[in-house]
Structures are given as C-alpha cells and as structure tokens.
C-alpha cells in the first residue's frame, strides 16, 4: 500500500527520505508510478496525529511511531496514517540543520512566552548566550519609540550585549499592526538564520507570535482614504448595526463575528468588500499556507496565581518609582493623545487620564495594576493552546536557574 502522509496544511513540492510530496496531500516513494498516486482526504481535527512545528516538542524520530490521539490539529501538525506508514522512515530530528528533508522549508525558532512579570526577558538573554541566538521581541508595545518604562523594554544591562530586534522600531504616532510586525519580524528571523544563529522570539503578545510562526498572510488594506473616511462617517451617522447589515450581504461570516461597536474592523471589512474581496475568503486562503517556522515554545508562569499578581503589583510600583508618570507626560508634550494606538497601552492610558484630570494618580496606579492582572490572565488563556510547549511554573523566584537548565535542554536540538 502506498505510504501516505495527510498534511493539515498543504506544502509545496519537497523531498523527504527518498519520497516526493506531489501535491493534494499525497506523499509517496519515487518507485510508485504517478498513476498510482491517490490523493487522500484531509484528516479531521481530532484525527490521530504526530505533532510537529508550532509549540511542539517533536519526537526524536518519526520512526518511533509516537502516536497521539484526540489532539487539536493546528499549524505545523501533520497526521500519519498508521496502517500505511509504519516503518522504514529514517531519523529526522526537528533542528535547524536538517539534511535534505522537507523540513528545510521550515527553519526552526525558539519561543519564550507567558504572562507579564514572569522573567521572559531574562530567560531569553540566558538562552541566547548559551545557544548562540538573538532576541526577536514579540511585544505589541515595545515596538514603539520613547515608550521605555511602561513597556518594560530591556535595558543595556539586561540585554548583556545580546542583539535585540523589533524594539523601538515604530513611531508612537504610527497605527502599527500585526501585519506590519510579521513582515518586519520575519525578515529579522531570516537574517538571524542566514548567519547561522537561532532566532529566540520573546514576548507576551500571543497574536504576534502565532502570526509570525504560522505563516499567516494578511488582507491588504485598500488604498482608498476617501472610501475609508466615508465609511467612518456613515458608521458615526448610522451606527454599527446598519453597516453590519450591509457587510452581511457580501461577507456574512465576518459580519457574524463582529460586534456593532467594533468600528475599526467593520470599516476595514467593508473597505475590502468594496475592493471585490472579503476577509473570510482571505482567511480561508491563509489556512492553506504552510507554516513559516517550526517552533519550540517555552511558557513561563507561577504555580501560585497570587504570587504572579503580587509580582505584577510590585512591578507597577517600580515603574512609577522609575518615572513612568514623567514618561507619559513627555509623550503628551510631543503631541500624542489618548486617541493614538500607542497611548492605549496599559499604564499610558490610565496615567493620561490622570494628567488630564479625569482621575487621580493613585487611582490610575490601582487601575494599571488591575488591568495588568487581567491582561496576564488573558495571556495565560492564549498560552494554553500551545499543547506541547514546555511549561515552567515557578514555585518561587529562586528556581530560575532550573528554568534555564530545562529550557536549554528543551531547545538544544535547534542548534
């Protein structure tokens, strides 16, 4: 029976252990005549599968037949038909220096993520020093210039000479987006890999990490400022329900997912619809793309949620002592307002309200702590999708070196 591999994501033609991926989810050895190559239906999301790629630990050899069951299929997963594909498959470790395997199309990266205040920056630097890596920040607010204290940008003392990318690369006046981030961060990772070093993606913005690793494409924004302004004015005059009704005629799936108060996304969806496309069709096309990188993921957390929250509170107090209020004041003096995306960041939004007289500074500080704790909870929820990640739950701050040792062993195959 022809050996076959069912790919969740369609890969382009590539060679693996003497076999050829010939498209339409078909994998066979060269000796099999083309007439005998039969495409297979994609496995359902709950099908048995061997995990690799995003958030995966990837068994040391596919020939180990380390099957898993009832695993949610995600980017970087492929399912193996155990009745047909059981032997004679050579050892193929998930590492950056692979021989002529199709995995050459998936260069490897290491991801360090988790909620705020868990030591991601410190661990990232330690692993870069041990593994010959460079940090690629995945923080949606560290990308802005002039915003150092409130975004916890690493200081020169903290980076210890390790190159850091994607920090302070955008003006706070700029409406930065995940698509812009992925474009620039992917270039940074490719440059690091081309120099024989390991990209270490460090940060807590889950959407940035997933979009970078998965190979997600983004719908281009039509360059029609007049249309955008007209749709925005219509939203203000007619309300979100009216525009969602219009959107439902061309992109019902997208319209169903949006809330009437989500002006930005409603206007964007209508812009794209007027250009003859739809976000739903674009998302469907994106799901057929192969992943950009194969990633090993380390998630940092504290076993005691109360300890995590206490660290967050202490961190906010430390930021205030270091001059966060003055930093916000200087940003407002530059001409930034509460309407700019950068000023919506936790810490900046609340202190802007205090400086504008809408609350006291003490009240703003308590709001920052509360919103930071809530953000940490959302980050943890996002991280739980990384089923095969290495989770490190600190019992106290003194076991950091154990985290370094575990992470180093976990990532060793990448170099």
Describe the overall structure.
- The protein is an alpha/beta fold and about 425 residues long.
- The chain folds into 3 domains: about 90 residues, no CATH class; about 220 residues, Rossmann fold (3-Layer(aba) Sandwich); about 60 residues, Histone, subunit A (Orthogonal Bundle), CATH 1.10.20.
- It is about 40% helix and about 10% strand.
- It is built from 14 helices and 11 strands.
- The protein has a 6-stranded parallel β-sheet with strand order 8-7-9-6-10-11, with helices on both faces. The protein has a 3-stranded antiparallel β-sheet with strand order 2-3-4, with no helix packed on it. It has a two-stranded antiparallel ribbon with strand order 1-5.
- A hairpin with a 2-residue loop joins strand 3 and strand 4.
- It starts with a strand and ends with a helix.
Strand order of the largest sheet: 8-7-9-6-10-11
CATH class of the largest domain: Alpha Beta
**Segments where pLDDT lies below 50 for 5+ residues?**
1-104
Class from helix and strand fractions = alpha/beta
**Count of runs of 4 or more consecutive helical residues:** 14
Shape: globular
- Give the amount of beta strand, in percent: 5-15%
Gyration radius, in Å: 24 Å
Mean pLDDT: 77
Examine the secondary-structure arrangement and name the CATH architecture of the largest domain: 3-Layer(aba) Sandwich
Number of strands: 11
Major sheet size, sense and barrel closure = 6 strands, parallel
Please name the defining characteristics of this protein.
Rossmann fold, Histone, subunit A, six-stranded parallel beta sheet, 3 domains, alpha/beta, 415 residues
């Amino acid at each position: 029976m022809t050996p076959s591999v069912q790919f969740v994501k369609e890969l382009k033609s590539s060679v693996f252990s003497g076999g050829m991926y010939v498209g339409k989810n078909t994998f066979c050895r060269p000796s099999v005549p083309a007439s005998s190559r039969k495409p297979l239906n994609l496995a359902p999301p709950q099908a048995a599968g061997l995990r690799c790629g995003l958030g995966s630990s990837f068994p040391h050899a596919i020939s180990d037949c380390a099957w898993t069951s009832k695993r949610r299929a995600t980017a970087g997963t492929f399912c193996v038909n155990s009745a047909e594909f059981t032997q004679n498959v050579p050892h193929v470790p998930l590492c950056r220096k692979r021989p002529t395997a199709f995995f050459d199309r998936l260069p490897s990266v290491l991801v360090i993520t988790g909620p705020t205040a868990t030591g991601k920056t410190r661990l990232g630097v330690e692993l870069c020093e041990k593994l010959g890596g460079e940090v690629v920040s995945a923080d949606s607010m560290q990308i802005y210039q002039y915003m150092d204290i409130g975004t916890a940008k690493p200081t020169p003392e903290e980076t210890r000479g390790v190159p850091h990318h994607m920090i302070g690369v955008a003006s706070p006046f700029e409406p930065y987006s995940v698509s812009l981030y992925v474009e620039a961060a992917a270039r940074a990772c490719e440059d690091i890999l081309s120099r024989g070093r390991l990209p270490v993606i460090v940060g807590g913005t889950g959407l940035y990490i997933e979009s970078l690793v998965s190979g997600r494409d983004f719908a281009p924004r039509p360059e029609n400022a007049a249309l955008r302004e007209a749709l925005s004015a219509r939203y203000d005059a007619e309300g979100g329900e009216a525009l969602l009704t219009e959107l439902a005629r061309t992109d019902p799936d997208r319209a169903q997912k949006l809330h009437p108060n989500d002006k930005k996304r409603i206007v964007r969806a209508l812009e794209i619809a007027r250009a003859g496309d739809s976000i739903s069709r674009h998302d469907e096309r994106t799901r057929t793309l192969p992943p950009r990188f194969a990633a090993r993921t380390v998630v940092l957390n504290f076993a005691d949620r109360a300890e995590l929250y206490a660290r967050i509170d202490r961190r906010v107090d430390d930021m205030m002592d270091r001059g966060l209020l003055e930093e916000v004041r200087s940003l407002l003096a530059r001409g930034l307002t509460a309407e700019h995306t950068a000023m919506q960041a936790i810490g900046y939004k609340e202190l802007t309200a205090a400086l504008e007289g809408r609350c006291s500074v003490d009240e703003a500080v308590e709001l920052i702590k509360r919103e930071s704790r809530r953000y940490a909870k959302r980050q943890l929820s996002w991280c739980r999708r990384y089923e095969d990640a290495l989770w490190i739950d600190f019992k106290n701050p003194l076991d950091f070196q154990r985290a370094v040792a575990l992470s180093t062993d976990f990532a060793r195959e990448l170099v």
